[in-house]
Amino acid sequence: xxxxxxxxxxxPLLYALERRGYETVFVGxxxxxxxxxxxxxxIDIATAALPEQVIAVFPQTIPTGLQHGTVTVVQEKETxxxxxxxxxxxxxxxxxxxxVEFVTALDEDLRRRDFTINSMAxxxxxxxxxxxxxxxxxxxxxxxxxGDADARLQEDALRIVRAVRFAAxxxxxxxxxxxxxxxxxxxxxxxxxMERVGLELDKMIAGSRPNxxxxxxxxxxxxxxxxERLPAxxxxxxxxxxxxxxxxxxxxxxxxxxxxASAGTGAAASAGRRMALIARTMRRxxxxxxxxxxxxxxxxxxxxRGGQASELFGLLxxxxxxxxxxxxxxxxxxxxxxxxxxxxxxxxxxxDVMIAEETGIDSRTDEPELRAHWRLSVLKHGKPAAAGWLAxxxxxxxxxxxxxxxxxxxxxxxxxxxxxxxxxxTMPACSVKELAVKGKDLLSLAGKPSGPWLGALLQRLLEAAxxxxxxxxxxxLLAEAAALLQTKEREIE
Length: 493
Ligand code: ATP
Ligand code: MG
Description:
Blueprint: H1 5-19, E1 24-27, H2 29-35, E2 44-47, H3 51-57, E3 61-65, E4 70-75, E5 78-84, E6 86-91, E7 97-102, H4 106-111, E8 121-122, E9 128-129, H5 134-140, E10 142-143, H6 149-155, H7 158-169, E11 173-174, H8 176-185, H9 194-206, H10 210-220, H11 232-251, H12 257-262, H13 266-284, H14 291-301, H15 306-315, H16 320-341, H17 345-359, H18 363-366, H19 368-381, H20 383-395, H21 398-401, H22 406-425, H23 439-446, H24 452-466, H25 474-492
Parallel strand pairs: 2-5, 10-11
Antiparallel strand pairs: 1-2, 1-8, 3-4, 4-5, 6-7, 8-9
Bound molecules: adenosine-5'-triphosphate and magnesium ion.
């Protein structure tokens, strides 16, 4: 097997240990991805040398996880995890092995790994060590546990979620025994830290087939068993998907599970429409580049409000910065989708003509009402959130415009979004920082001490500049500020 540049660069590490008589190999993900011709994420190395022997060989090492046999070796600015061949025993709380035992046989080490595609090694001469048929499984596009699936998933329930992630990322079918074990032991997910589940879900969302991951998560029923309960909307959607799929299987209808779910009237029909929106969102999710924006699309499809979306991120132990950004996109989404959903083109036109008459703005091209609403919402939630929201609804316009008859309306929806995009780009100021006057200018203008009035005044000026009522220029803004201060004083009198 030929080696990529990244593996070749790491070869001196293997040689250094081999020269001292320790069998050493590349292992896991980097071997799998090399066989698939995919770019490598990280390079893991396994060796017969004990951690202290590894530390003795290399000038720069970090004792990352000595009790599990892992030493990080730093070489030419790259880091490599070098782990001593080991077996695991006595799994504790369905996750971490309570004990690891260092061994000298590579096969023993490969046997403890989760799936056959992850249980291959590559020697320094490029030879592949594949005792469990990983290459064959890759060729047949099959994900299979190493050894007895029941035993392996019982040992460590995180593998249940990893199975979905790998099946989706590499477009593999899950082997029947492995799938049965997933269903049988899914309840053990209650023992897995939410943080670990969060990491896996993140990789699924960011991966190339988030739709496939969602379908597998739903049909396995595993989401209902997480340690902390996920939002009801998410669990309901997963359950509805699984039910519809089961119905379809029994009836052998050649329709999508969601078409079955959306049949019926009244409440059932509305639930069906919701499911159709979720399905459409999941199918198009990969079109959104940024994974944070993908999460926002999922939350929007599930109709989670801003607060509920941040709660979900809290459950998954994502950072508060990520939560805040998501909440901002969701806030903007609420403001804009309500506005876009509840107004027909005809009503828009009538209102725009009225505003046009008052302001002299061209109502046909400028949509002044919509643009004002948009720019005020951008001020409230921030420009980054606005860019994120545009990416979301650009890929999935139904999230903002609804599913009804979107087919015919899609070009008008696209045109509207293009105008919003342009309106964002040409916004004279999106934050107080971008205003052509500063707080101290206003202080000297007002000739009174700073107080809450200053922030309020800056905000008023920002709105005026953002809406284009006052040019974002120093003189104009100072004149506007003076006028505002005067009105204020008159109001107080
Ligand atoms: P990626 O880096 O793309 O997520 P990977 O295969 O490198 O994929 P890691 O989580 O980095 O996955 O783990 C490295 C290797 O360690 C895996 O390939 C697998 O052999 C083994 N491994 C990781 N987690 C487990 C687990 N929970 N149970 C058994 N083996 C595991
Ligand atoms: Mg890895």
